[in-house]
């Protein structure tokens, strides 16, 4: 069937654009009207401008929080007995994010044409990842879509909570260090040269700390353009290096080996692994496919490698616990509990219990880390600024002492 590029507005007045596959132009317009889109321009995709097609095909990701709300509302509607197409139409019409709304309405149109929900969602991989679509497919096959959606909503909500905890642990120290760096830079760049000029005019004898601070200030003023360029190049180089497989492994491995933060990151990785695998297995996804998806969503290259090795071992007929123990990434207690779950046939429940335990551990660890970092960061900032101020006032105290004598 031909493809038509269109532009239009929703009933709320928001501009939308995209492409629609239909038998004819009239059928495309009719389909868009059913999706509550008022068409202002439509043409066969071959006649549309390159810019229009690129804008129409540009992928947009959705925030985990929006996806969690969508999934929870979807599960409630399905549980209430509403038809699938009507659920998607309502959810698409009330969604504030226009790109996500367009994705939902496109999914609805594909379902209305005869595709399964999972197949329709697979057409939007930036919005619905393999974990989401595989669980939806399992729910449709087993006739338990409402149950699967509830599990998905719970999983995404817990994942959002884990992400916020990681941000809490990382953002606070990064923010304090950044503020400290800006304050010290401004003092060295603007304030210290004034003191240096004053001391030179007075011919004061400068102590060693004062000379060091003035030398640092002079170097900063002279080298400021090179420092800025160097920092930008460093950030860019790090991003390029981390984008490589070797770079991810080196950086992620170094993070896991850090004294305090590494322990927290390991707990987060274990909680995410157990929660994802538990949710997939409970939804009827095969163990090999579940491990493949879990590895890709691990968020850490070292954990991903461990899961990949485990999957290969299971293909050879081994248990899950055996290869996990060999990777030395997961704590012994986790491996033992997984082994018990395998032996009793309750692996998904056991993984869920491990995830609950480690999520509570992460809560405690983040609270403890923040309570430890707060006074340490304040002391660091106060110490650095205080040392600079004292070094600048030392010659003044010396001059006052000489004048009084």
SSE topology:
Elements: E1 3-10, E2 15-21, H1 25-34, E3 37-44, H2 50-57, H3 64-79, H4 84-94, H5 98-112, H6 117-122, H7 130-142, H8 145-202, H9 208-242, H10 245-256, H11 261-282, H12 287-296, H13 301-315, H14 321-327, H15 332-344, H16 347-404
Antiparallel strand pairs: 1-2, 1-3
Helix pairs in contact: 3-4, 3-8, 4-5, 7-8, 8-9, 8-11, 8-16, 11-12, 11-16, 12-13, 13-14, 14-15, 15-16
Written account of the structure:
By secondary structure, the protein is mainly alpha-helical. It folds into three domains: 3-57, no CATH class; 64-157, Type II secretion system (T2SS), domain F (Receptor-associated Protein, Up-down Bundle); 164-405, Receptor-associated Protein, CATH 1.20.81.30. Helices cover 76% and strands 6% of the residues. It has 16 helices and three strands. It has helices at 25-34, 50-57, 64-79, 84-94, 98-112, 117-122, 130-142, 145-202, 208-242, 245-256, 261-282, 287-296, 301-315, 321-327, 332-344, 347-404, and strands at 3-10, 15-21, 37-44. The protein has a three-stranded antiparallel sheet with strand order 2-1-3, sandwiched between helices. Strand 1 and strand 2 (15-21) form a beta hairpin. Helix 12 (287-296) packs antiparallel against helix 13 (301-315). The longest helix is centred in the middle third of the chain and has 58 residues, at 145-202. Mean pLDDT is 81; it is low at 47-59.
What does this entry show, briefly?
The protein is 76% helix and 6% strand. It has 405 residues and is mainly α.
